[in-house]
């Protein structure tokens, strides 16, 4: 099982992948459009492992990606912004870390 965090902005989304021991594996950015969504699916399938994906609730941006991933049978969780902010306040801010 791999864990994938997603940080969404208006034109791109950043992802970070960790294993079950929460060891960082890799990060990558994708365009926030249908091509980027498809590239993300291809990226995830290369690991050949089940994944759980988490992203912060941020309105329609989150829902577009959430719906796309659900249609492709991925396990996706939307996190409340309060808890994401509370966790991120204790870290240095960069997009890969946010993911």
TrEMBL record:
InterPro entries: Transp_IS110-like_N, Transpos_IS110. One of its GO terms (biological process) is DNA transposition. It comes from the Bacteria. Pfam families: DEDD_Tnp_IS110. Residues 4-99 form the Transposase IS110-like N-terminal domain. One of its GO terms (molecular function) is DNA binding. This is Transposase IS110-like N-terminal domain-containing protein. The lineage of its organism: Bacteria, Thermotogati, Thermotogota, Thermotogae, Thermotogales.
